[in-house]
Design goal:
The chain contains ten helices and no strands. It is mostly helical and 249 residues long. Helix 3 packs across helix 7, helix 4 (86-110) packs across helix 8 and helix 6 crosses helix 10 (215-245). The chain starts with a helix and ends with a helix.
Length: 249
């Protein structure tokens, strides 16, 4: 159940990050957005390149900041890894792993003042199996978002560490969205890795303790992205409503 839950939340993270990025791209000039997200792009690109190197794939047209009008990062379009089946999974997963790893260290080094103020309301390593459990999960997510927002607002904003932590957290979380053209590959990699890990865990009756220890990072990432998605939808809807009422299409 641990790996099934992990797979589900990784899918939530990827899809939510992709949704946030799409909304921001529609509201802000892509070049400005990609400039702001450069720290997260760097982590994701390092993971992408590392995946190419590990699998013996071809590296081409991989840039941190594109030359086009959008400034969008570029990745190798057809890497052709030398390791069959597992190779594409590694390439699809390592950008996510890289961003999650950096979030973990950023939270430990800079996020203590914020994380120390987070109260109750976390998502556990098991998924609900009843309708009541599903509604309770939604309530827990709302509580978790509220807790993180309250902790952030109560942090010491006179300290540069607070600003840097929140900035890097947002950049890294949003950049867990797959690069253009890689969405299906990333989702497929998560499913394959999750099914494989769950099968192996059930056969050997053992779970990697690192997965359990990193659950706090997953809570932080999920809550951040869900709040950003909710806030982005409200802003996008508000702007659209104002344009509609003012007679602008």
């Amino acid at each position: 159940m641990l790996y099934a839950s992990l797979t589900f939340w990784l899918l939530v993270i990827v899809l939510t990050a992709w949704g946030v990025h799409q909304l921001w791209t529609a509201m802000v000039k892509p070049k400005v957005l990609n400039t702001v997200l450069l720290p997260g792009t760097l982590a994701a690109q390092v993971g992408h390149v590392l995946g190419l190197l590990v699998t013996g794939a071809t590296i081409s047209n991989t840039t941190l900041y594109g030359d086009g009008e959008s400034g969008a990062p570029e990745t190798t379009p057809d890497p052709r890894p030398k390791i069959p089946i597992v190779g594409p999974v590694i390439i699809g997963m390592l950008p996510l792993v890289a961003c999650a790893t950096v979030i973990f260290f950023v939270a430990r080094l800079l996020g203590a003042p914020v994380l120390g103020k987070i109260g109750a309301g976390t998502i556990g390593p098991t998924l609900p199996t009843t309708t009541a459990g599903a509604w309770q999960l939604l309530r827990d997510l709302i509580t978790l978002m509220e807790s993180i927002v309250s902790a952030s607002l109560a942090a010491d904003f006179t300290s540069w560490k607070t600003w840097l932590f929140l900035y890097l957290l947002v950049c890294l979380a949003v950049r867990m969205a797959p690069f253009p053209g890689n969405l299906r590959g990333a989702l497929g990699a998560i499913l394959i890795l999750g099914i494989g890990a769950a099968t192996l865990s059930s056969l050997l009756d053992v779970a990697d303790p690192r997965v359990q220890n990193a659950w706090a990072v997953l809570n932080l990432t999920v809550a951040t992205l869900l709040f950003l998605l909710l806030l982005s939808l409200l802003i996008r809807g508000g702007v659209g409503l104002v344009k509609l009422l003012s007679g602008h299409s």
